[in-house]
Specification:
37% of the residues lie in helices and 6% in strands. The protein is mainly alpha-helical. The protein has one domain.
């Protein structure tokens, strides 16, 4: 699994009703370290057993695969 750019950050294009109902509030990470922490939280909350890689701040994987 590759964690890519946050799709619905709370400080960007958020989905307030849906995210709030699910208790999700994630700001767009400003650094790679922040993105890694968000990915770790997501994988933990979703109980993902696959190895989780994290796309770089240049979003190269997201762009390459039109995520």
């Amino acid at each position: 699994m590759v964690y890519i750019q946050e799709a619905h950050p709370s400080d960007g294009w958020a989905m307030p009703d849906r995210n709030e109902r699910r208790g999700i509030s994630v700001k767009e990470p400003k650094s790679y370290g922040e993105r890694v922490r968000v990915a770790e939280q997501a994988c933990s909350a979703l109980k993902i057993k696959l190895p989780c890689l994290v796309d770089g701040m240049d979003n190269a994987v997201s762009k390459a695969y039109a995520a």
